[in-house]
Design a protein that fits this description.
This protein is an alpha/beta fold and about 290 residues long. The chain is about 30% helix and about 20% strand. The chain is built from 10 helices and 11 strands.
């Protein structure tokens, strides 16, 4: 495990969210991401980076911009990165975001409206992602109108047209960008480091929230964020997260997101305990005795 350094500056008392962004030698994208937060947010926010390696100038840039950040000489993976950055959170709400994302205008206002409408703090809410490629994910808006890299990114077109795509609220908010009360993050212990460098750490986190009694896993259709899909996972040795999740929770991740989170279905309120159907019982049995 690499040693992690911590650097924080004077907090902004006006900040509404604390946005945690892990990054790994992806300077041009994280610069665009932070710039979009500054330009397209309705409210001021605390931005916190975790800089993995930073040999491309990311660490120097974070210091120049006076961004709160944690850092490690080598890549420590997503789980350690977000947990380290989360220690610097100064607001009530933690947002986890990828470095290859661009927030659309008023993305934060719509999340804030969701929070204000609740009378409790047991929630996990995701923004709705716009992606240039169709991966079969029902929660995502697919459009190739805005490019798929910084070099061909059509920023002005995205800002003008991002709300033109019909998308209702959906069940199963789980992946970034997402927002959660910091107290709830602390209660379940953040991301599970045994899933390092991070495969299947997102559904594991959702399952931990489920065990803590959370039943509101909502995708906000109006809060929109463009995702370049510039993955760093091809540069790391992946953990066998599928097996880890199955062995830890006694159910495959796919069955958890389908039968517990109802992922991708229209949002119709807090989730209920899933019915113990033969399909679900068989999935549990196969998880215990894979063959």
């Amino acid at each position: 495990m690499e040693r992690i350094e911590f650097k924080e500056y004077s907090p902004n008392p006006e900040a509404r969210f604390s946005i945690v962004i892990p990054t790994w030698n992806n300077l041009s994208y994280v610069q665009l991401c932070v710039d979009s937060i500054r330009k397209n947010s309705r409210y001021p926010h605390q931005v916190i980076l975790h800089v993995n390696e930073g040999s491309d100038g990311t660490l120097a840039w974070a210091e120049e911009q006076k961004l709160d950040h944690t850092s490690s000489v080598r890549n420590v993976g997503v789980c350690y990165a977000v947990n380290a950055a989360a220690t610097l959170v100064k607001t009530k709400y933690l947002v986890y975001m990828n470095d290859d994302m661009y927030v659309c205008p008023d993305w934060d206002h719509y999340l804030w409206q969701e929070i204000e409408a609740l009378d409790h703090s047991q929630f996990f809410i995701s923004s709705t992602i716009i992606e240039p490629k169709d991966t079969g994910n029902r929660c995502v808006i697919v459009s190739d109108d805005f490019g798929d890299s910084i070099e061909n990114f059509k920023e002005d077109a995205l800002k003008k047209q991002c709300m033109d795509f019909p998308k209702e609220d959906w069940q199963g908010g789980t992946w970034p960008p997402n927002i959660i009360p910091k107290k709830l993050w602390d209660l379940v212990g953040g991301y599970s480091v045994e899933f390092s460098p991070g495969m299947y750490s997102d559904p594991d986190f959702s399952r931990k929230l489920w065990e803590a009694g959370v039943r509101l896993f909502k995708g906000c259709g109006r809060s929109r964020v463009f995702h370049f899909m510039c993955k760093s996972t091809g540069r790391v040795v992946k953990n066998d997260g599928r097996r880890q999740f199955r062995e830890k929770w006694g159910i495959p991740s796919s069955k958890f997101t389908k039968y517990y989170l109802n992922i991708g279905n229209p949002f119709d309120g807090p989730l209920a305990e899933p019915e113990e159907t033969l399909t679900l019982k068989w999935a549990r049995l196969r998880a215990r005795f894979p063959f």
